[in-house]
């Protein structure tokens, strides 16, 4: 027997998935609550009850898409791996996430709308980049404690590693300057970043 609470969760999920597709395709201004409800089923009342309106729905969509995109990164278990192996796995997975078609489209949408919704930029950063920085920071700090990496600010080290590996390729792809690199090129980028990082941080 399906409970009322279960039906409510299913309806919310359907609205989120439908709105995500529409926002990514048409932007914030190009989507109305009426369009979402027509495509998802239900009524405008559902949107206002679950999300408080179009703005609340938009922010919920961003958080939903980020959480979904980061699942492969969150599933990584590298705490017992030595630094070279762990950093390559972290880098490989993170690059695959941020260069994904949906996340690139979402990033473009957030940049376009962040002036209108300052809370949107904060939600994006907290759920996405900040989560990744803290995850890598926690790994590096643990490696510093056991002497595999030299002492230092683990947060700064995490930012240096991730930015060194991702900044150029991500911005080029995000802006359409160059297409997404092939896997072989990405592997060379990861290896170079890991080697350079460890050259500075190995004891």
How would you characterize the overall build of this protein?
The chain has 203 residues and is an all-alpha fold. The protein folds into 2 domains: 4-64, Arc Repressor Mutant, subunit A, CATH 1.10.10; 70-201, Tetracycline Repressor, domain 2, CATH 1.10.357.10. Helices cover 76% and strands 0% of the residues. The chain is built from 11 helices and no strands. It has helices at residues 4-26, 33-40, 44-51, 54-69, 71-74, 83-98, 101-113, 118-127, 129-145, 154-174, 183-201. Helix 6 runs antiparallel to helix 9 (129-145) and helix 9 packs antiparallel against helix 10 (154-174). The protein is elongated. The termini are far apart. The mean pLDDT is 91.
- Report the major sheet: none
**pLDDT averaged over residues:** 91
CATH class of the largest domain: Mainly Alpha
Beta fraction: under 5%
- Per CATH, what is the topology of the largest domain? Tetracycline Repressor, domain 2
Low-confidence stretches: none
Overall structural domain count:
2
Give me the Rg, rounded. 20 Å
Q: What would CATH call the architecture of the largest domain?
A: Orthogonal Bundle
Structural class: mainly alpha
End-to-end Cα distance, whole Å, is 60 Å
Shape: elongated
How many helices? The count is: 11
How many β-strand runs? 0
SSE ordering = HHHHHHHHHHH
Percent helix, as a range, is over 70%
CATH superfamily of the largest domain, by name, is Tetracycline Repressor, domain 2
Topology:
Elements: H1 4-26, H2 33-40, H3 44-51, H4 54-69, H5 71-74, H6 83-98, H7 101-113, H8 118-127, H9 129-145, H10 154-174, H11 183-201
């Amino acid at each position: 027997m399906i409970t009322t609470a279960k039906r409510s969760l299913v309806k919310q999920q359907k609205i989120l998935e439908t709105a995500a597709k529409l926002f990514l395709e048409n932007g914030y201004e190009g989507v109305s609550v009426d369009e979402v409800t027509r495509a998802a089923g239900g009524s405008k009342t559902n949107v206002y009850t679950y999300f408080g309106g179009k703005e609340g729905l938009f922010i919920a969509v961003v958080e939903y898409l980020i959480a979904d995109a980061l699942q492969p990164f969150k599933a990584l278990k590298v705490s017992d791996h030595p630094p070279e192996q762990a950093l390559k796995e972290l880098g490989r997975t993170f690059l695959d996430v941020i260069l994904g078609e949906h996340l690139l489209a979402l990033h473009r949408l957030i940049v376009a709308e962040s002036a209108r919704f300052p809370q949107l930029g904060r939600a994006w950063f907290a759920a996405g980049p900040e989560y990744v920085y803290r995850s890598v920071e926690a790994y590096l700090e643990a490696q510093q404690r056991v002497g595999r990496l030299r002492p230092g600010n683990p947060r700064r080290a995490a930012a240096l590693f991730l930015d060194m590996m991702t900044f150029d390729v991500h911005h080029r792809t995000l802006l359409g300057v160059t297409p997404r690199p092939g896997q072989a090129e990405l592997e060379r980028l990861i290896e170079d970043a890991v080697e350079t990082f460890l050259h500075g941080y190995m004891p």
